[in-house]
Predict the 3D structure of the following.
Amino acid sequence: MFKKILIAGRGEIAVRIVRACRELGIASVAVYSEADRIARHVQLADEAHLLGPAPARESYLDAGRILAVARRCGAEAVHPGYGFLSENADFAEAVAGQGLTFIGPPPRAMRMMGEKTAARRAMQAAGVPVVPGMVQVLASDDEALTVAGQLGYPLLLKAAGGGGGKGMRLVAGPHDMAAALRTPSPALSAPVRRQLGEAALTVVRASGYVNAGTVEFLVDRDLNFYFLEMNTRLQVEHPVTEAVTGIDLVKAQIRVAAGLPLGFRQEDVTARGHSFEARIYAEDPDNDFLPSLGTIMALREPQGPGIRVDSALFAGMEVPIHYDPIMAKLVVWGADRAEAIARMRRALDEYEVVGVKTTLPFHRHACSHDGFCRGEIDTGFVAREWPAIRPSRVETELAAAIAAAVVERRTRCRQVLAPSGPARACRASMWKVVSRRQGLRKI
Amino acid sequence: MFKKILIAGRGEIAVRIVRACRELGIASVAVYSEADRIARHVQLADEAHLLGPAPARESYLDAGRILAVARRCGAEAVHPGYGFLSENADFAEAVAGQGLTFIGPPPRAMRMMGEKTAARRAMQAAGVPVVPGMVQVLASDDEALTVAGQLGYPLLLKAAGGGGGKGMRLVAGPHDMAAALRTPSPALSAPVRRQLGEAALTVVRASGYVNAGTVEFLVDRDLNFYFLEMNTRLQVEHPVTEAVTGIDLVKAQIRVAAGLPLGFRQEDVTARGHSFEARIYAEDPDNDFLPSLGTIMALREPQGPGIRVDSALFAGMEVPIHYDPIMAKLVVWGADRAEAIARMRRALDEYEVVGVKTTLPFHRHACSHDGFCRGEIDTGFVAREWPAIRPSRVETELAAAIAAAVVERRTRCRQVLAPSGPARACRASMWKVVSRRQGLRKI
Amino acid sequence: MPTEYRVRVGDREMLIDLTEVDGQLRLALDSAPLAIDLAEIGESRRFSVLIGQRSYMVTVRRQGGSTDQCYTVAVGGQSYDVDVEDERSRALSRLARPHHGEDELIVKAPMPGLIRKVLVKPGDAVHKNSHLAVLEAMKMENDIRCPRAGTVKEVRVVEGQTANLGDVLMVIG
Amino acid sequence: MPTEYRVRVGDREMLIDLTEVDGQLRLALDSAPLAIDLAEIGESRRFSVLIGQRSYMVTVRRQGGSTDQCYTVAVGGQSYDVDVEDERSRALSRLARPHHGEDELIVKAPMPGLIRKVLVKPGDAVHKNSHLAVLEAMKMENDIRCPRAGTVKEVRVVEGQTANLGDVLMVIG
């Protein structure tokens, strides 16, 4: 087993990999940009090394700097997380060129799958069904319109070289819903699920794939399925799989990369219960899911049975402008789908992030939405339903108004008394605010 | 199902019951003493009602005040948690006398099991093996010494009417280890476990027991087992059972109390993987596990895969002097015992409570202890091993010294410049403390 | 000490009266007494508030850069802008407040970010949905569009500059 | 500004030299330069400290009630009492410090709590393990015993009083 692993990423996934390393008794090395000096992965890792300035191309995307740190600190392997260089076959080769292990698939498989149109052609040749007409590269807007006319709308457009979902555009915030569509979708019958599993194995064998990856299929209304693409990295929503199977996928990745046996076979993998993931982004659902920046003033993350939080958040943290706005992932497990949804709702209620707008209100109201709870959603859900299900705010407005008035009064009181007067006495008498008396109005 | 439940307790267990209520769509009512106005269960519950002054007999042990709140708020059921009135049959009867449901066993079963010596006699009559000679009430110290001579040392003494482990004295901190001895102990073979299960069912049937409870057996070196007692309440370490079975025991308690089916049968209950619980007490392991008070200055609780935290802690909390010092429970799950221990170690490393001494350092070092990891422990473990395995502190002393020196310098600098001078400028230049230069000494 | 506050939150406006009696605060909402209990967690401007017996966690933050009496208040997963005006300042401000043109439109930054492009200059005629500027934040370029037709009166930012949430970018006449 | 500090933590004593160069602090430990990087989290007296490249989270708290230069520092799950003395104050304090009897024993409260019983009075002879007082905390009564034989010189608490951690209860001569 490796003694030291460099984690070539940031945010919640870097934190997650630090945890896997620690459980395996492996020293973890964080790298960070100048904007991330106090980030959570720096706090938790055993070592932390500065890469360079805040822009990703000068830090997290700079393979040269990352490899220089890896050499200097004596790491034996590099885990790329997701995003940044994780699907970059050149980087994987450069890591190997230094005599280090890249914790991910062979560069050849990454190359085959990275170019999505070529991948679809290769899989078609291997006998995996692909979406009719979807093996064409669209060179221009005009050509796109022509092909679109042949295929019929609605369409899902993906950029051929895109990664991390950035090239996919249908509706604001599709990433918020993607995880909810996964394991096991109530829309899929057991035989269809088995056929999907077999097709995925064909994909893996045809590409010479090793290590964790995700094969994506599109399923139409008649439950026909078509190979869409393969993500040659740890999936953002891997905790959903971990919750139902009990397998730690990151530790499995590390074991496989170290040449050790997985410790389980396909037939040992059994699913129990149901799981959902909600991604907490620093985005404002009331402002078109645009990014929201600021400093976390107060934070309370959910705990208790069936809850897992993978988070980069901490009180005092400034949300940096330079990177992907994913801040945390909330993953719930329940004995059945209904319990998992109830847990998700409960955990979202407990989750409090003050100082930065997040997707939490959106998730809360999605989980209260009947159609969502029955699994009747599609990629149009957000655009269609979110404006209609926005929260009523009357209930909490009064609490906000009262607290602000009391703080305003305290401030004035202090200004009058301070700095010479006994500001403390003023406060003490103010903060035991009690007007509980019989006959008072209750609301 | 109930619409509203009053939770007659405080601390982490009250928080845990609030969560179960919320997942079932039931309104939760917290009660609190004057010392607990901002406690976590008050923060999280839907409603909160003042009971009375800080001493428990005037608040959490005052059945009259609790029932008055239950009437006033319109609760339909009362969950007693553990401790306080949870094993008090008179309270259970008084709740029923108000037309409310007590979420726990029938008072008759509570009475039978509450008097431990009588319980042992009854179980002996029902054919359950009891410890030889352990059905005697020891009226005096002299009699105890005589009986002790007959039985042979070491002995475990339990007060006949004691609850919550308070009457049990063998060694400081036995509660810290109890949970580690449970499901499934590596010392027990499968046939012995099955026999234990059957004996437990005999106990339950003989006492007319309904709702959650725990039957305790003593097991000797030859794997003979003897009925010790039954805890007629939710067990403090119930999350361990929840982790391996996937069953939410508190929700099951509430369902049974509401007359609803459990939703599972004995044969549906399957165990997966391995689980441990560490109880975080406000006690100082370096000072004989004596209670430690203070204010939580900073808090970071562990997260990530396989981790569950049930906690009453928050930054700004003052640990009250009046109640049991249990603050939080850390529960880990792993696919096997080794993974569970590795997770526990990792989670304990992440767990940071600043401002109050806790049992965390003890747990950390217990988990690094070879004998403990192999399951070779007994009730003498703490007294025997803790002095020997106390942490070496050299590694972190330097970080402490440097941070204190820098804060001291900042304070002086501020005193010189403030209030008229630009204190901020002083600080700004101080806090970008960087002396990373080539050729500097590294440690 | 003034005791009556006019508080605006969302679309609601209410009168909150705070009176100290025997060292404790009494509260009246729109002249009717209301049972509340408010306790601070540490010195964090974070409060446990009981209204009647309903329990709320509330975090209060004074808005920097604006007037003294504007707060951002987080409660129940929502964040509110709350204006608190005591009746005396209200009277004063009514006298002092200059008249703003009713038909002036202030275009503010919808999020903090880097001004990548400024697409108009003073005097330009703009239509509804005209592109005014491009703001970059977290790897995304965001179009700033004009909510109605008019003429650009002022441009307060330049390309390459960073803007905070709510900073005035332009004034449309 | 003094730049050299004598720091005591546990059984160790070290010299830490802090010098400002070009707006940045340089640190030397026992006269040898050391690569450190220290960044505060918000204004919380909580720091991310890198020594070499090793990462530590450190929380610093000034001890109330004692001298200015005593800190409680939490790091790596441990809590340390750290004395920081600058060389100038050290020189001053050496002159000013009164001589304490070497054989005097200060009995301090091992935890905060309520003094339930005081079992000795000044002048009493005490043995090793003599019961001196009973301190109640969190439903438990804790015996305060005498670590060695001697005579009670002072009793500084009375029954019914609360004591904080480290408060002096008695002096044994």
